[in-house]
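Anyone? Bumping this.
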Amino acid sequence: MSPLRVTKSRDEFEGEIYESTVVVEGRDLAAPRDGAAGDEVGRPRPRVDGRARVTGAAVYTHDLHLAGMLHAAILRSPYARARVKRVDASKAEALPGVRGVLHRFNAPEVEFRQEKALFRDEVRFLGDEVAAVVADSEGLARYALTLIAVEYEVLPHVVDLEEAASPRAPKIDPDGNVHDAGSYTRGDTRRALREAEATIDVTYRTSTQMHNALETHGAVASWDGERLTVWESTQSVFGVRNMLKDALGLAPAQVRVLCEHMGGGFGAKLGTYKYAVIASLFSMRLGRPVRCVLTRREENLAAGNRSATLQRLRLASSGDRITAIEHETWSNSGQGRWAANPTGPTNTLYDVANVSSVAHRVTTNAGALSAFRAPGYVEGTFALESAIDELALRIGVDPLALRRRHARSRTDPRTGNRYSLKRLLDCYTIGAKEIGWSERRAGGTRGSAPHRRRGLGMASQIWGGGGGPPAYATVHFETDGTAVLRVGVQDIGTGTRTAVAQVCADEIGLRLDQVRVRLGDTEAPYGPGSGGSVTLASIGPAVRLAAHDARAKVLRAAAGILEVRAQELRLERGMVVSEGARTPLGDVMKKLDNSTLIGTGLRHPNPDGLALKTFGAHFARVEVDLRTGEIFVEKIVAVHDVGRIVNPLAAASQVQGGIVQALGFALTEERIVDRGLGRVMNANLEWYEIPTAMDVPEIVVRFVGAPDRRANNLGAKGLGEPPIIPAAAAVANAVANATGARVRHAPMTRARVLAALSMAGIA
Amino acid sequence: MSLFSYTKPRALSEALRLLRGGATALAGGTDLVTLVRHGVARPERLVDLTGIEGLRGWSREKGKGIRIGALTPLADLETSAQLAKLLPIVRESLRDAATPQIRNVGTVGGNLLQRNRCWYFRDEGVPCWLKGGTRCFAVDGESRYHAVVGAHECWMVSPSDLAPALIACDAEIEVASSLGRRRMKLADLFVAPQGKRRREHALREGELVAAVRVPEGALERRGTYLKAMERKAWSFAIVSVAASARIREGRARDVRVVLGGVAPVPWRVAAAEKQLEGTALDDNACLAAADTLLDGATPLRDNGYKVTLARELVRRALRSLAG
């Protein structure tokens, strides 16, 4: 047996570096030398569960209806801030079919997110949990909520970021509403700004974006007297298990979390929410399964969001160099206790000698933020990349040329570590050619209709996505020669299930349909949450090792059965191939009776002293109607440098989806809150406008495709988040190029575009 | 959600009897069902009109114009090639209305009688003036999609795409009740909530819209409908404009200009139309008319851009009639 060793691993997750202890066993495989496709890896493959999903056969958490299942519904605060003085649930409890009510005066003590109680005595946002009912049907449970009488003492509130940051605002937190959320410096920005030939000082705003996954948050909990099983629409089955066991005082082995299929998460389902605890508490009390799923309105009040930001950027240049970037940000975290720091790209993207950034978290009486696909980086890139263009315009330099000059460094400026691979310049070259950048003119060009101007814009992307340990995979063979691959991750819709099946099939030498994937179950050895673009880069290398192990074993067994030397055998698409003979693997396995061959694999640590990053660039071509402020996004070219592409079809779909979501952020998606009422006015899909099919432009997807051989044995990095990062800034820059007017607030609604045009003396 | 009774009569007379008794009419349900679900409407009795024969479909009688049954699905009007030839403005107005699914279910009568989309009105937790409260929350609240002109106590806007288009065609409606039938101008169906009148429509208790009539004369006019939305599909109008005119030797006659999305009613100003009579619909004439239409506009905090937008859409719509 190979020796075990205990070591440290440093891995990036959503812009932060975390160190963890990992146990390593055996040796890793070398990554493939070039980007050439194998039999499966590198080939476009439709999703293995695609048919089940589109025919409705796939069972999502929302679809689950267990025998004897009850339904829970949550009463939410109608005030942005209030003290819950009295709760009278007697009428609700007296209603036939109501099985229980929980509220702050009768709920058990629950340790949840550093708070002791599930229901707060002071509710702090409109939508905060006040009570919960469990009943025979969902309709009955919701009706019973209306029978609960709550006496509130209404308290002063503040919901708006800039209001909350002002000294006159009511103090939501005892120590004030504005908190430090990280800072960074290199060089001397003050001096560089003082000595610069040109400077700009601009303020940008981004509005609160809401996830609106197709499937709202929800859980079904079932207690059998000893163990709790929870089906949850989640990005992290292990994350939910750990939070639930702590909240409920159970042992890890007493909680099993399952997520077979899910209808989207985008970061909001990385955490655990009170509805899951409520469903579990009711189930443990009543001994029956309990379902609790959120309505669309609840989803948009109390299930996370991308913080609104206010960002001030000062840039300095001398000659053709950017000499300094200073970036200060304020993020509306609502009732969240962290901020998605927008300054990540500022600190790491460009070779600029003097950088200083300060991030602030501002508490308000609004729902807590949650991770949202590249948290911080989407907001920060909108501001940074807009500012780079504004500086380029000021000094009369082509904005792409300006970026090229500052994108050559081989080392991560924050850590001094060399990049394992960086092909950002290639992204620029490929994208510029594809969009026709050489046709870009300062001041834009004529559009396709009267009063329309056309413009080109681009922006860069940096993100982590290197993944890391721990993550495990096992592969075993059925008696028919097909393989079962078991992993502790979940597929949140990105195509993880298909990608790991491809890696497994490719390594063993099976057809894709000969690999069955079991995932989304905490009964498997650990797998990471699907966030930070880490899933494939974490689990993929473990799958490859497990498959490699399984293949070696099956070839040795086959050699015994076929009475040849193992070295003379190989596996090709499910056939055992030897000199002059091809035997189906199933025929070999049959002769082994019930002997089972099991391969195991784990994720080895990331290489020491290397920075694992993903890079990319988006190019946009837009037209803008100068009289109506309407933006027509005609084409987006997306080029990403994320190492080896396992499934080009799924990868392209990731990029398209990221761009569509980015266009929502750029153009239409915005939470609108009435300040006086503290109320979200568009917690629905009517006035919270996500892009429709008609809003989607032509999207061209390109990958540099070179495997990152130093990163891991697959040479692959993550792609979940990169495609949402640069598109909004690329569009904003294209709008500015087309019109000569700069819109500094995302989304760029009609009102904002018309205001910017008017300010520039155009409309 | 409240409890209600539900009846689906086959005869119009039976429906009218039930309506007389205070029941609420249900047709496609694309609006009413959401109002009930969100607790804004609390009907005790619903009368489903969709079982009634004879209120569906449209026809043309030479010399008498077009008659459209109130239960005709919007999609039928939108997809009829024959109607598109006679009255292209109807197709133009419906093409960007809601979604194909909603147009399949939504009816002409329901579209004209839909409630407004103001987010304060639609939120059961907000006691706004239109729902019997004391004030309009948009006035010092979130007002980017609210009225810029013609508002009194309530700053919601008329949301229908079809209404401005039909008003630009001088449409009338047949109103039925158990007491008989009456005809009225479609424009008169819409009223700005004011004083004791906390509603958007002029129907009396127990009445329903049975049909829409477009007079023959309107078929001879050119018409067009333009709509500004926040995204490219499935949005209510930020501003819309329906315009029609007869063009004789390059001069405009019988001009109609109706704005949607800017006022509590489809917004029309006689003086604006009058000043376009006999003009060549050149830029200056169009913009001057737009200014008359929007004269006295008093935008709220967030919706001044609607005036800019309306002005340009009016100009474009009228220019396209001239062209």
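Late reply, but here is one note on the structure posted above: Chain A has 18 helices and 34 strands.
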